[in-house]
Amino acid sequence: MRLTIRHETRYGYTAPLAYTIQQLHLTPRKEPQQHVASWGIAMPGHVHAYTDAYGNLSHMMTMAVPHQGLSIVAAGVIETQAPLKGRVPNGDTLPPLMFTVPTRLTEATPGILELAASCLPDGRARSKDLLSLAEHIFGAVRYQSGATAVTTTASDALALGQGVCQDHAHLFLACCHVHGIPARYVSGYIDPGDSDHAASHAWVDAWAEDKDYVGWISIDVTHARLMTDAYCRLAIGRDYDAAAPVRGVRRGGGQESMAIDVKITSK
């Protein structure tokens, strides 16, 4: 599939800012199932490109002059292939076991322990069991745009019974970590097709142990399905905080408003 993507993030403020710093994970990862035909990021200020600890192509943008708004636009064309049975090659230098460590957003609570025990009763990580876990999570946490924030924990989303893709991903990670199953957060884009979910998306990679395969499989928990060629992967990490497309801090500015516009076409 050939995905044409445009992602704009706009910030506005009620008073001038003295300083802004933004960490960006807006460049598609170099992976066998996706090829970057063209890609660029337009942004103001001073920009430093680097590769982070997870192998994500990243940028640090800083503005140290007074400003009352800014716009960041990432756009390009990505050619994708559907990975067989959702299997993504383990080309990382990081050991899978590092993705068994809970974070603030994925800590286990009694509710999560109960869900993990019911969905993964023997602690196995077969592909069918992991997909079954995704189905249970989607049933337990109904998709509701605006129901949660980026600071919402897996436990909070489970208690609320509502959430968005990042909440589904965090809850999946938390359940896997209970059993020591490596699982990591993935941020990126999905061609929405006839779905009403946002084109900017989050899902997971989990370490499966099948008879014919041991390694990562990529699962969209929100849709309870394996990753296809409709997906573009931007970044991986332990949770949203590590893989967020745009994340930063500022000095001054009063009240902040943010608007995100993602457009994806495919052929």
Notes on the structure:
There is one protein chain. The protein is α+β, with helices and mostly antiparallel strands. Helix 2 crosses helix 4 (165-178). The chain is 18% helix and 44% strand. The strands form 3 sheets. Strands 1, 2, 3, 4, 5, 13 and 14 form a 7-stranded antiparallel sheet that branches. Strands 11-10-9-8-12 form a 5-stranded antiparallel sheet. The protein has a two-stranded parallel ribbon with strand order 6-7. Strand 6, helix 3 and strand 7 form a beta-alpha-beta unit. The model has no long low-confidence stretch (mean pLDDT 93). The chain is built from 5 helices and 14 strands.
List the helices and strands and how they pair.
Elements: E1 2-24, E2 34-42, E3 46-51, E4 57-63, E5 67-80, H1 110-119, H2 127-140, E6 142-143, H3 154-160, E7 162-163, H4 165-178, E8 183-190, E9 200-210, E10 213-220, E11 225-226, E12 231-237, H5 240-243, E13 246-252, E14 256-266
Parallel strand pairs: 6-7
Antiparallel strand pairs: 1-4, 1-5, 1-13, 1-14, 2-5, 3-4, 8-9, 8-12, 9-10, 10-11
Helix pairs in contact: 1-4, 2-4, 3-4
